Amino acid sequence: MELVDNKKQIYIIVATLLFAIIAMAGAYFYLLLYKQSLELKNSLDIAKDNISRAQKDNSDLQEANDNLSESLAASQAQNAVFESQIREISGTVGTLQKLSETDPELLKKYSKVYFLSENYIPAKLVPIDAQYLWNGTKLQQIQGDTAPFLVNMLIMASSSGINLKIVSAYRSFYDQLLAKTSYKILYGSGANQFSADQGYSEHQLGTTVDLTVPKFNDLSLKFENDDAYAWLRGNAYKFGFVLSYPKNNSYYQFEPWHWRFVGVALAKNLHDSNKNFYDLTQREIDQYLISLFDSQ
């Protein structure tokens, strides 16, 4: 009986030890899990904090980006204004330079209105090719910037079967004096009806030509009834030329042969509005000085 009691005591002791061991193991694992839980929670808190900071940084970055976009848009708008101002200034400078290089005398209303001194000679005078002259042995000159327009007009007329020839082009102050003197000897005061005094002739500008066709011996009022005159009336403005002295003008007798270069823009305006050069005021005419030698 005593042996049995001893065994029970041993069992109880072993059981107690086992329980204690299990309890201690459980406590250990609990503490281990608790520690891991705390570490995980700490990691989660750190992660949340990092995420929060990242979100704040992203918000700040977005705000900075929005501010940068606004600044960029404002800068672009300002640059656009600057570019527009620069273009405007450049255009103004270009216009002023163009005007400074264009002889304002070339669009003045001469013929008893404005006066050219004996010292005036148009810039860039060039000889006209003999093939376009009524008298190929006599030198005729034209203002250099006008020359291409004149030649193109003569070529276009030729392609239409019109053989225009130049009787007279540039005349100096003294050439005009000699011409007027000879006319006065022949026609007396009647010369004032068809010939300008020196200094008042459009020919001195170098942009004016007297035209005819070979069948006439010289300048003739018969030219009015020729196909060449009809062609000029319908086409000369396309090349910048206008009839200076049409019928019923207040300066000279009708001169169907006398054509002056005033630029394509002004010539087209006069043609479309059925007006003559001397119908306009000098202020109206001067507006076309900037486009005098423009092809369109």
Could you name the key traits of this structure?
Muramoyl-pentapeptide Carboxypeptidase, domain 2, 51% helix, two-stranded antiparallel sheet, 296 residues, 2 domains, 4-stranded antiparallel sheet
Can you describe this structure?
With 296 residues, this protein is of the alpha+beta class. It folds into two domains: 101 residues; 187 residues, Muramoyl-pentapeptide Carboxypeptidase, domain 2 (2-Layer Sandwich). It is built from six helices and six strands. It has a four-stranded antiparallel sheet. Strands 1-2 form a two-stranded antiparallel sheet. About 4% of the residues have low confidence.
In short:
This protein is an alpha+beta fold and 296 residues long. It folds into two domains: 1-101; 105-291, Muramoyl-pentapeptide Carboxypeptidase, domain 2 (2-Layer Sandwich).
